[in-house]
Amino acid sequence: MTAPLVMVLIPAVAAFVGLLVGGMSRAAAGAIAVAGPLGALVVAGLLATEQPWTDPIVDTGFHGVLQPFPAATVVDGLAVSVALMVSFVATLVQIYSIGYMKAEPRYSSYAAFVSLFTAAMLAVVVAGDLLLLVVGWEVMGLCSYLLIGQNWERQEARRAAVKAFLVTKVGDIGFIVGIVVLIGATGTTLVPNAVQAASSDPTVATVASGLILLGVLGKSAQFPLHAWLPDAMAGPSPVSALIHAATMVAAGVYVVARFYPMFLAAPGVLTAMAVIACITMLGAAVISLVQSDLKRVLAWSTVSQLAYMVAALAVGSRDAAVFHLLSHAFFKALLFLAAGAIIHAVGSSALRDIGGLRRSMPVTFMTMTIGLLALVGVFPLAGFFSKESVLVAAEHAAAGDEVVAPWVGWLVLVVAVVTIAVTAAYAVRLWMLTWAGPRRGNGPIHEAPPVMYLPLVLLAVPTLLFGFTALDVSALPTWIQANATEPLGTPAALTPALVTIALSVVALLIGVGIGWRSRLPSAIGDGTSILARGLGVDAAYDWLVVRPFLVLVGWTTEFDQHVIQRTVSGVGSGTAATGGRLQRTQRGDVQRYVSTALTALIVAVVITLVTVAT
Amino acid sequence: MHLSLPLLLSVSLFGIGVYGLLVRRNAILVLMSVELMLNGVNVSLVAFDVFWAEALRAGQSLAIFVITIAAAEIGLGLAILLLLYRMRGSIAIDEATDLREDAA
Hints:
The complex is a heterodimer.
Chain A (H helix, E strand, L loop, with lengths): L2 H19 L4 H24 L7 E2 L14 E2 L2 H24 L6 H20 L3 H19 L6 H32 L4 H9 L2 H18 L8 H4 L5 H10 L2 H10 L1 H5 L2 H22 L5 H21 L3 H29 L15 H15 L5 H17 L7 H30 L14 H16 L9 H7 L16 H20 L19 H47 L6 H24 L1
Antiparallel strand pairs in A: 1-2
Helix pairs in contact in A: 1-2, 1-4, 2-3, 2-4, 3-4, 3-10, 3-15, 3-19, 3-20, 4-5, 5-6, 6-7, 6-8, 8-11, 8-13, 10-15, 11-14, 11-15, 13-14, 13-18, 14-15, 14-17, 14-18, 15-16, 15-17, 15-19, 15-20, 16-18, 16-19, 17-18, 18-21
Chain B lengths: L3 H20 L3 H26 L5 H31 L16
């Protein structure tokens, strides 16, 4: 058993132990719930101190009863940095949940699913074997379904859970086929070997990465498979924090980063990624601007920010994508947990019920402000540096320094800068509606308990400081690429460039101006405009998928009732009717039987004689 | 003696038996009719045995076999009729229809 496997197994075991004993004692359930991710965090920290890792690919040869279990793991800078982030955020989410889910009757199963979710994400992160990767990937889909449907008494939650499961499953079909193609074409299930072999063959690289991209679009909520993420808000706030920051959506981006050499060998797929990312980035940000629900604003913002990561991958900078993935995880988890604290205090997530909370919730106010500033990308917060690194990468691509065509770089650059303005607008609007102005609604408002605001403070620290890693030109890229199993040449600097800073500052100021105009509660829509409902993507799904499917279901039902059902019952009733008719001859009259037998005998004899005679 | 005479006797006995089997209500008479049919067959077996005169005398052997079976059969049949009479006080064959299948 090796350290990475231990890291995956600790939260998994905690999940099962929590399910077994959690029902007996709430305190024990809480302790086990925190112990799982915390144990993983400790192991990840120990792994981080061991850098450089002498043997990054470990085939543990964990032989099961029938087959060697695919437990090969990869430990390099990329895996360790993401694993650190995942277990850190998951630990804080579990601590926060102790307070947030105090009144929840199904707390023990909830905490167990969060732990299992973390374990599955860590399995994806350290997977050195394609099969282990798929296992973790699918377990995550299951956990997201269970956790979004935590409050299954509400129809909204049930619908959202099924939607999340089905939409990501659509992408997962492509993902599984892509993995099968990859294994089939390269003849190995070890991730580094398969990626290396595939990247030397453009056809295999294009087919495999194109199919895997489908799964990534589903998991990382990119157009057109993004529709599940805003509805996933039906789950409890800590679950949203987990899904939007550490697990699930991060998995898609991470898998592309893990398979990056293969994607670099397929410029067509990268171009498609860039176009999808641009549509998602700007569209989701604009939709976020008109949402009337606190969590929905943040959800659409996640979709938009994920598009930044996908765009960074598309323009050839894995390091920028991972940088933004990490910094986004910190500030988006912070924002969702802060939103949870507000909902906990106010009892509603509708923006019209929230307002003027500045004085009554000072800790949440401070930390959420930090989170929003990072989201907008204000110096010197983490979001500023990571977003700048994406812009720099796009600029490099526009200059023709990357595998994709220069126009792709230009497209990403322009859309990303415009999106900065929109991001600033919805962040300012959200801040004004939440904290400024007079208090709306009734009842006393109290600050969240320490068990809830402590995670907020702990997340504010990396949100404030993480960005400075970019000041040392090569610190983060070197770290990410340390012992990389798929070396990508010299790590590029992630330091902001002057021209992109100038562009984003201008965009930011314009955005603040737009946001300022919609600062009043009267500007909150009722959430029914086509923009607020996600530009009609759900309606398009309804027309293109749901309705034809229902018609098909109708036909199938008709066919079943009128053809199959009738055939089956016809065979039955036909047999019964024939039997009833034959029954009439059985009267118990022996002499009639004998005369029938004699008649038959005579007929048989006559027929025989006639046949013999002729 | 010409073969046709014993065969005529055989057919007459068999025909009388069939008639009795089909029309009589009294079960004793029905059993007697069955005996007539069997013995009609026996007559033809013996007649053919004499006519062919083969070494193994298969016709006579078969006739003795049929007589044995007939004896056993009449024993069983009379025992059944005795029980039937004790149960119902009647041995009319068209009344003994308790085992029929009633129409559904």
